[in-house]
Specification:
Blueprint: H1 3-6, H2 17-41, H3 51-71, H4 79-98, H5 123-144, H6 160-166, H7 169-202, H8 206-242, H9 248-276
Helix pairs in contact: 2-4, 3-4, 4-8, 5-7, 5-8, 7-8
């Protein structure tokens, strides 16, 4: 049996162009972080920040304030992840708007074609939705311990299969919401350009209308829609993760309630035994 024909590993030219756009977005974020890090070495704390340091300070402060208001002080430091997540979503939409030529795959059929929005491929929104899924269950395990798994057998153990299915609902919701909006914007922009091309070839006015209407379409479906999607995705991430937090006081109260229930059951057993015991 020749496994070389059964398993075909993708070559460089077979990689989806959406993945390349995603990598470019991550590289831009990494470069910005390195630039800010380099500027901080020569930063004078007695002087007000300027340029990229001022922008970085405002973005970090805004992310921290949102985390503080929506998640509470227990998630201090989570703003860094939310900031990177938001930048990744917004920059990805902007790269889809710019349409960088695909010069990275010379042997591909899409060579020199504009790189699309990475979220038009379900693998990209699924990847960041799985990160949210990880943070949800990591937070639950961190604060609730092994008692976290009781949720899957409530109210009865027979509900375990249904609860295991609903466990993935946040992943499905976040993935399809981001994918659907990105794909809808891509389809609308494609239809607009197709209509301009038809108008140019038949009537001769498409070339005059394109500079007037195309920027409006891109402004809404790439810039404005990107801002909406990063806001919704980040807010849902913060809400779902914060919902798993249990304060030490609440956890201690839950343990006392469980111990009280055990004590009540024990007292009922003792009373039934004493009532059923033969009298001398």
């Amino acid at each position: 049996m020749n496994l070389n024909h059964a398993i075909e590993f993708p070559t460089w030219n077979d990689i989806p162009p959406e993945f390349l756009t995603s990598v470019i977005a991550l590289l831009i974020i990494a470069i910005l972080a390195l630039v800010v890090r380099a500027r901080l070495k020569s930063y004078d704390p007695l002087k007000p920040p300027r340029g990229i340091l001022y922008a970085a300070e405002e973005l970090v402060g805004f992310a921290d304030r949102q985390v503080q208001s929506m998640m509470g002080p227990a998630f201090d430091g989570f703003g860094g992840y939310i900031l990177v997540l938001g930048l990744y979503i917004f920059i990805s939409f902007i790269l889809g708007f710019i349409g960088i030529p695909n010069v990275f795959q010379p042997g591909s059929e899409k060579f020199l074609a504009p790189l699309p929005n990475p979220f038009t491929n379900t693998a990209m929104p699924l990847s960041i939705a799985l990160l949210t899924f990880f943070w949800i269950h990591f937070t639950a395990m961190r604060y609730k311990g092994w008692g976290y798994f009781k949720r899957y057998t409530e109210p009865f153990a027979v509900f375990l299969p249904i609860n295991l299915v609903t466990m993935w609902s946040p992943v499905l919701s976040l993935t399809l919401r981001l994918f659907g909006n990105a794909l809808a914007g891509f389809c609308v922009v494609t239809l607009v350009y197709t209509g301009f091309e038809y108008a140019f070839t038949t009537v001769g006015v498409g070339l005059a209308l394109t500079p007037l209407l195309a920027p409006i379409v891109h402004l809404y479906f790439d810039v404005f829609d990107g801002l909406i999607q990063l806001t919704v995705f980040c807010m849902l991430t913060m809400m779902n993760v914060a919902a798993e937090y249990v304060s030490p006081e609440e956890l201690a109260e839950a343990k006392r309630a469980q111990e009280e229930k055990r004590a009540q059951r024990q007292r009922r057993r003792m009373s039934r035994r004493s009532a059923g015991a033969p009298r001398a």
